[in-house]
Amino acid sequence: MSGPQACSEQQLAVQAMEQLPAGAILLGDRNFGIFGMAWKAQQRGHPVVLRLTEQRAKKLLGRALEPGLDQEVVWRPSAWDRQTHPDLPAEAAVSGRLVIGTCPGARAPLLCLFTTLPLPVEEVLPLYGLRWNVETDLRSLKQLLRLHQLSCRSAAMMEKELVLAMAAYNLVRAVMWLAAERAGVPPRRLSFSAVYGAIECFLPYLLAAKTKRTRDRLSARAGL
Fold first, then answer.
1. Does residue 4 form part of some domain?
2. Could you say which of 99, 129, 159 is where a domain stops?
3. Residue 83 lies in a domain
4. Continuous H helices in the chain
5. DSSP secondary-structure letter at 3?
6. Residues 6+ apart with CB under 8 A from 74
7. Other residues' Cβ atoms within 10 Å of the Cβ of residue 40
8. Which of 54, 36, 57, 176 shows the shortest CA–CA distance to 107?
């Protein structure tokens, strides 16, 4: 974010692409709905579902936007895109579709998506909706696991804090999955903070339990 090695979120996203499995689908909000992201993903064989600003979507379509629209388009870089990505070849282009949905009650009522997937609209829109899970996960990491601002002063300590926080996060998610399986509901129906609190409450007793029978009894009492 600052200092001599500062870089944008888009640059970090491009670096993260290198670690993705082949064919992984990239979901991006308007901050990532730019030609450079679509181009980099295409070069690495990753389909995309990117949200565009209404202004960018209208320019790409070449006419007014209409809810329900599903139009094949060829996205080419603008002068600004070429200025910020001077490595783009002259023939750079990404073929895909512009899909327009609606977001009732939102400040931006139109949901403008660019996708390179061959899926029908009724599958593309819910697929983009899965991105909200990432937002809630980040909120849990920042607030409950206190990763919003790290107080460590060395790279080594930062790595340790991140590893421990992610271990705690994965523990909570694992317990949520077990509890949801027992209750017969999707894991995301459960509250992360509530399960986190239950683990904090019962973990000392589980660690102190000397027999499997005691641990099972405590787990059942906790609803796990």
1. no
2. 129
3. yes
4. 9-17, 35-43, 54-61, 79-84, 121-129, 131-143, 155-183, 192-208, 212-221
5. S
6. 93, 94, 95
7. 19
8. 54
Is 1 part of any domain? no
Domain assignment of residue 47, given as a range = 9-129
Residues 6+ apart with CB under 8 A from 186: 180
- Residues 65 and 78: their CA atoms lie apart, in Å, by 20
- pTM for the whole structure: 0.79
Question: Do 141 and 122 have their domain in common?
Answer: no
Q: What is the pLDDT along the chain (224 residues), one digit of tens a residue?
A: 677 888 888 888 888 998 999 889 999 999 999 999 999 999 999 999 999 999 999 999 999 999 999 999 999 999 989 998 888 999 999 999 999 998 776 666 889 999 999 999 999 999 998 998 888 888 888 888 888 888 888 889 989 989 998 999 998 999 899 889 888 999 989 999 888 888 888 888 878 888 888 877 777 776 55
Residue 214 lies in a domain: yes
113, 18: one domain? yes
Number of domains in the chain: 2
- Pairwise CA distance, residues 109 & 117, whole Å: 23
Asked if residue 159 and residue 207 are part of one domain, the reply reads yes
